Amino acid sequence: MISWRKHYKKGLIAIGLLLSTSASIYGQDGDPKNGEKLFKANCTACHALDKQVVGPALKGVVDRLKTEQGLDTDWLHKWIKDNKALRASGDKYANEVFEKFNKTEMQVFPNLADKDIDDILAYTTNPPVEEPKADAKATTENTVAAPQNNNTTSSIVIISLIAIAGLLVWILIKLRQLVKLGQSEDLAGLNETRVKSFSEIYAKYHYIGKGLLAILAILATYGIWNWIMWIGVYKGYKPEQPIYFSHKIHAGEQKIDCQLCHSSAKYGKVSEIPSMNVCMNCHRTISEYNADHYMEPGKDKAFYDGEIQKIYAATGWDPAKQQYTGKTTPVEWTRIHNMPDFVYFNHSQHVVAGEQAIINSFNKKNPDNKIDVVCKACHGKIDTMNVVQMANDFTMGWCIECHRTTEVDMNNGYNKEYFKNLHEKLKKQYPKDGGKITVDAIGGLECGKCHY
What we know:
By secondary structure, this protein is mostly helical. Among the domains are: about 120 residues, Cytochrome Bc1 Complex, Chain D, domain 2; about 30 residues; about 35 residues; about 100 residues, no CATH class. Helices cover about 55% and strands about 0% of the residues. It is built from 21 helices and 2 strands. Strands 1-2 form a two-stranded antiparallel sheet. α2 packs across α6, α4 crosses α5 and α15 packs across α16. The radius of gyration is 37 Å and the shape is flat.
């Protein structure tokens, strides 16, 4: 009896060890929640759970390797930490994977501890169930419903005002009829002697008439002049683009630096429109919109996903095969900011040389609306715009005013040495200002600086 109990206990211990080993093999001994964080931080650039991106889909990878290749988590640990070394050792399957995915080398992760890798594998085996998300469509409908109610109220008010106006007109007509009925013969005779033509009125009051005509001529001249001066000024212009691109999502929500896409603004005269290949740097792996915390009213996930598909169509990218087809379609963007041909403007001069000076000047003039990026001084708070619009006038007067009020950064070593004599001269000439140097003092108002 004692012998049987000993064997029974040994059997239970063996079964327990077997189960614990099996759990380790199938990635169940890790923390899926922590694994999710690690997966998103290290793996999502090339992998997804449910579809192939740059690398294969990873959901159930532990089970697949065990079933198809007879490999356990030890192999995965080696592959994740240093797949190059594993391939160099002659591992057959490691080299097969490398060949299968177009010899695209996977990043090595020697910094990940064994526990971290176990957590990631646990996440791929048993991903945590996502909490139900708020119905974005319902939220959108509620958001849209409010303006509709306001429109209904406005319509009722307008109809009521029109009815009141009609009633007043009817009352005036009736009063006029009553007055005519009550006129005496003397009053009727007086009416016959009144002036009844414009020529008679003008002859009687020609001095007043000439004065009014002169005033009208002056106002008309001013109106025409003002209209001419604003030709080509398109403040508020925001055209619809062939592919919807929200700067609020990219620059605002995702904190993407302006110069990551508009790289030539720092090194060249023109800040070019980014090529579609720049978009594909991110959207090669981001094929759908998952930021449910922000959606514009009237737009849903399907809308944003459709715009990403337009990027793929333009670049000839096949997301299923993860390769380019070679069939590209140019995107005809509508330009928003466009200086006249006779105006010279250099982005690099403002973005690099004048960066700190422009930011300081803008924040000094706008203490309640400060900026942190030099681009916003001219283009407005672009990180809050879903549809980009022209935020300023971009007239000659607007530029001159900026040059007259923006102080040159004298903390810059080059400026401090180059403008040393000028600075000393201005200190003596304008002691109250402390010799303040603005852009106009160093040639910022010379015609040849901006005009060919």
